[in-house]
Amino acid sequence: MRARSFFLSTLKEAPADADVVSQQYMIRAGMIKKLAAGVYTYMPMGLRTIRKIEAIIREEMNAAGAVELLMPIVQPAELWQESGRWEKYGAELLRIKDRHDRDFVIQPTSEEVITDIARQEIKSWRQLPVNFYHIQTKFRDERRPRFGVMRGREFTMKDAYSFDRDEEGASKSYDAMYAAYQKIFTRLGLMFRAVRADTGAIGGSRSHEFQVIANAGEDVIAYAPESDYAANIELAEAFSVLEGRQAPAETMEKRATPGKEKCEAVAEYLGLDLLKSVKSVVLAADRVNEKGEPMPAKIVLVLLRADHELNEVKAGHLPELKEGFRFATDDEIMQAFGSKPGYLGPVGVKEDVAVYADRTVADMSDFCCGANEEGFHYTGVNFGRDLPEPAVADLRNVVEGDRSPDGCGTLKLQRGIEVGHVFFLGTRYSEALGATYLDENGKPQILQMGCYGIGVTRLAGAAIEQSHDEKGIIWPDSIAPFEAVICPMNYAKSEDVRKAADELYEELKAKGVDVILDDRDMRPGVMFADWELIGVPHRIVIGDRGLKNGEVEYAARGNLAEKIMVKTAEAADFVAGRIRK
Amino acid sequence: MRARSFFLSTLKEAPADADVVSQQYMIRAGMIKKLAAGVYTYMPMGLRTIRKIEAIIREEMNAAGAVELLMPIVQPAELWQESGRWEKYGAELLRIKDRHDRDFVIQPTSEEVITDIARQEIKSWRQLPVNFYHIQTKFRDERRPRFGVMRGREFTMKDAYSFDRDEEGASKSYDAMYAAYQKIFTRLGLMFRAVRADTGAIGGSRSHEFQVIANAGEDVIAYAPESDYAANIELAEAFSVLEGRQAPAETMEKRATPGKEKCEAVAEYLGLDLLKSVKSVVLAADRVNEKGEPMPAKIVLVLLRADHELNEVKAGHLPELKEGFRFATDDEIMQAFGSKPGYLGPVGVKEDVAVYADRTVADMSDFCCGANEEGFHYTGVNFGRDLPEPAVADLRNVVEGDRSPDGCGTLKLQRGIEVGHVFFLGTRYSEALGATYLDENGKPQILQMGCYGIGVTRLAGAAIEQSHDEKGIIWPDSIAPFEAVICPMNYAKSEDVRKAADELYEELKAKGVDVILDDRDMRPGVMFADWELIGVPHRIVIGDRGLKNGEVEYAARGNLAEKIMVKTAEAADFVAGRIRK
Predict the structure, then answer these.
(1) Domain named Aminoacyl-transfer RNA synthetases class-II family profile: which ranges (chains A, B) (predicted)?
(2) A42, A76, A98: residue with CB nearest B35
């Protein structure tokens, strides 16, 4: 490609609403252009990267035996009603009406449609296993779209759906996709981790996320440097940090703590160790009676050590909360505890409040907590003596230094961007939609499903978050919009330079290098700044001075300081040899 | 590809609502699957064809210097309001609201978005010309989706938009796209015609449709076998079929024609030549007064010779009708003519009715027409004597035998399916959205635009309409889901057959042939029927009998009767040589 036949458009500054580096650089490099909140045009430069990502995914999906099809973007509501997601999905599901006032959705995923296809197409065990995928536009009507292509509303996703005879087969399909994903993200040139993830409301037993490691990531990954353990912090099991509970040594006392609502303030005021304080978090699960009328919410008191954080996913597994929950309102708290927040605790709570202690709290003794009376806390509190033994559960986020759930050393934390997800679905959709096959005995059996997603457009953003510097993007070779750029100095006026640049351009093309020749004849500083921003990984500068010595200058985008002079005749081989295929 | 690793699904019968051959065969061959009215899943077999069509289009668009990008499917209403199409587009434009109650559309085309991009990105004449295209999902909420993928609601279109400094430049861009389209449809292996087309409400001066010739086409093409003239019948100019007007020879008489409302019935009843009868068609254009309140519609009487058909596009060019029109209601007709339909005519009509005679009618004398009184017609009517000379316009469809507008012989008609359209837009959108560039003198100038569409998914249907037989589809090599199929007889049990089939499969793959090996081990009749239905153009049958002579059997889908025995060792070369690349 020659730059003048392409469409280059760079900006010196990113718009003020670009909130992460990848978004800023993609806009500045002319890769994306915002059309509406969370809706972007992929400009020619950006589309090249997206197509390369898609091609790698497609090759590895095909190699893993998956079969590509293309399901529609606009899907009829009936299927979503059958699966129950029409009601459950919430406002992110964009619901639309056609001219005949019939309900449709713009697909956020395609479980319903593929299961509908399966129930019509899959008749016999002989057709199994089968794994369908498509690479298609999705829409999720995020309340607050942000981070550019990483949390947009319209985006491209590869979603695959496997159908198997039984859990054993589904497990093999899952493993095949897990292996394919490892290959895909490796080929994309990314540092990533496959981490265990929560299976959420869908149920099912296995789920892994593929996380691209990046400081800007929204997810936190807990991993054990001494083993291959890695899990989303949502899932990572947290043990008690104490070695069993000490016997009570203090008596329970009620202490005035006027205006001290935070554990830290209370501990400081009373001169206590913060690690002896228990934090009370009040959650509420809305309920209806048999007639479907709203009832007062079920109130759940969760106890955490003051320095620990509530893990909402884990809380969602508590029996009282598994249908969904929220934080209790001040009114509900006053009603249930007789006190405003800031002074709450487990001592003497009403019977209809469920109390759960995190594992660490269950091992605490002589602790401090609110007295359920404004301006007062208790100290020297002990389970079994001052209040009943609590129900115990894992309710907190792990922290660095926690022991690894697999027994190998301790955990570390890092941030990641979820770019892929493999998920054992079981019969969640096949049962709802009645998708069965006939087994060898002619008996109908429910299909076992798995689903496997990759955020295609998000990957472009994640790659940039992982790899950039103050000048711009540093693309991995495999997904750079161009693998190499030729920057000729004085292209219009120097015949030598033009000839050398044109020749090298043709040679590189002949070697299969995806090269762009910058024939715009701009000042070197402007030209270099453009390509450093765009992040093309291999750059060849051709100037009269070098040509006098029969040389051109090579630099890798990841190491611009190291400029290598290469014989002109060997330049094409040199560059081609540097590109990681 | 091996059939067992792919997903084959054929049906013996098409669903009852499949109304054209292409739809029936695509469903039966497992290429598409209906999800909702006009919304289809492209099954693995169908997607292969779509991808091949896309690849050919992409290559030729790139070769013609167009630059690919990807504009969003969901587009904000504001841009459509700016262009005026939010109001004008009608119910086919699917309007949606997001969670914040903001208006969006699902794009039927992207003129607004690309013009918005151009007004931001194109600053200087140095950036021109530029031609952007994308291959993207579109949605048109057709009132009555039909003909499978040919008039669906969700479909894939390639749409390109050129930007130029002036009309001369735009004309060059137009010509480049016209030439690229010729290459594209030739490579797709289709019989097609580029025909002049109406420029419609958009205005502009040049427009060509690319029509795939097929009896099932919705469009009628008029062409001159003696020249390269070809036009959509909507546009093809019709001349008078008479050689000037004869002098009056009869007197005007009022004749009772009780219950005779059709020209044919009147002519038969009165014993007249039908070609002496004039048909009256009453059209109405709705109007509003200065306050925007509805006024009685403007009534237009169009006169056609009885055997001719009204051309609504041409009628739409009449000054009274150019803002849109409809057929008048019975009430409006009674009001304007004092008679019910069936007895209408131009004699003595009120002054506020505009009267237009088609060119042929203007040359008629002594003709018959309604008397504007139920049960009566006039005969022997003559313009200039019995009624004023009429305004004259070209208002009818051409018929076979009409003289060609380019003066070369006479016209023939054939049916076609519109699969592409090149259109000179001028400043329709650039002016509405204020898309300008700075010329050499630093003065802002309005961009000149062209738009160029190809119906990607429709092309699959059109190709089938053009090429099929009673057994199924006959694909052109370039867009067949597979170029060749190997049908081994007794694949599971005959080791010789399996070995020969596997070897030929590998050889063909090595030669770059897109081949599928049918390893399903089905009965020959079932296997052949499947591939004849699917329409793979080259078939190799391998059986023990032929192998004994060292031979396999080749047949082309287009000529199954001619079975050619080929030496096994030469089979790969033979098949590869038959494929039109």
Answers:
(1) 38-476
(2) A76
